[in-house]
Amino acid sequence: MKMPKAHPISWILLLVTTLAILATSVSRIILPTVLPAIMEEFHWSATEVGFLNSAMFIGAFIGATFFGILSDSVGSGYKRGWTWICCMVVAAIGGILTAMCTTVNAMRAALAVLGMGTGGAEPVNVAIIGEWWPKEHRGFAIGVHHTGFPFGQFLGPVVISFILAVGTWHDAFTFVPLLAIPIIILQLIFGTEKNQKKVYKWIEDHQMTKPLDEVEAEGKKPSLKEMVKNVGVCLQNRNCVMAIITIFIFLWSEAAITTFMTLQLTTVAGISLAAAAVVSGASGLTGWIGQIGWGTVSDSTGRKFALRIITAGWIVATLACMFINTEMSAWMILIFWGLFRNSPFPVMYALLIDSLPKSAGSSMGLMIGIALGLSGFFAAPTAGWIIETYGFTAHYVVLAIMLALSYIPLTIIKETVHKDGEQAEA
Asked: Major facilitator superfamily (MFS) profile domain: from which residue to which, for each copy (predicted)?
């Protein structure tokens, strides 16, 4: 596997956007990691806590949809950086408000704000990196960029466990979202119009394909008509609709697993909360392998091929989770899951940018908004009820069956990459 060639600024923006995804990932992991502590303080059952988790996903639905569509209207390329900065400011405000909450309803509202910020940041951030790299290496760039999620899923619980050792879950919500501040500064420094023009000239000089026809000039302002048009274009595209359905299933399964993993580790495996917080992020140790590997493979063998293999890996890993009953078994199974856990998302993002290059933010915003928002809203309460009623084994069997159903929309999706790596018409 050869290292792709790109302009130095493209590599710098890849680092910046990867750090941005890491910050988003860590912010999302706070609630599942400190869930047992919240349950103890408020005396909530697993089902009730599931509805608390749903509030954050309602916010993600609103944020991803709104900010994703807004970013297309504001402008592509370097202009998206401003929309992303707004998202991270909203997330930081939501985290601080959550830490200050003294009632359950106030916490739900604050988590919804946090969800709006993190939900909006993801599609905008993916669109940004997709517009700073040549089309020929889009899967690689998005795959590397998305390693921020597995790294965040591992580092987040580690950082939070240190915070819990000296403070409370309130402190985690106060300090973690502030990690975005240095990343915002880097985005402002490097994500400029001048730098994007340099990158596009380099791509042309090296006889590669620019992600956009031209760097947009200043002066374009968003309009409601354009935003509505972008939504219509996305929902009429077969790949966009099938992507929403497929990612809905993956995100449902992920939310159901991660929300109650620390609970399973503390109650079934008998691990302390601090230790469980660290173990629950074990998938992050290997997540980067699947992200980069399958993203790069999809550039040459096709997006659908990669997604089929990833789905099979998800099913095996999900069924294996029912055998987690010791700390060692948890490490082994979750590390294996890491090879597949985040892999479908960058491949699907690349598919959407291939299919709708001029509406990338809108399509990914709709996919993340609808899939993440709706799956997160229903997944946690449903999983909580299944666990309380039938146990963890039934919980994982149900999730494996759901994952198998994702092969149906995958069959309908139209491939956007020829076997030789050339872009096909979506």
From this structure: 13-418
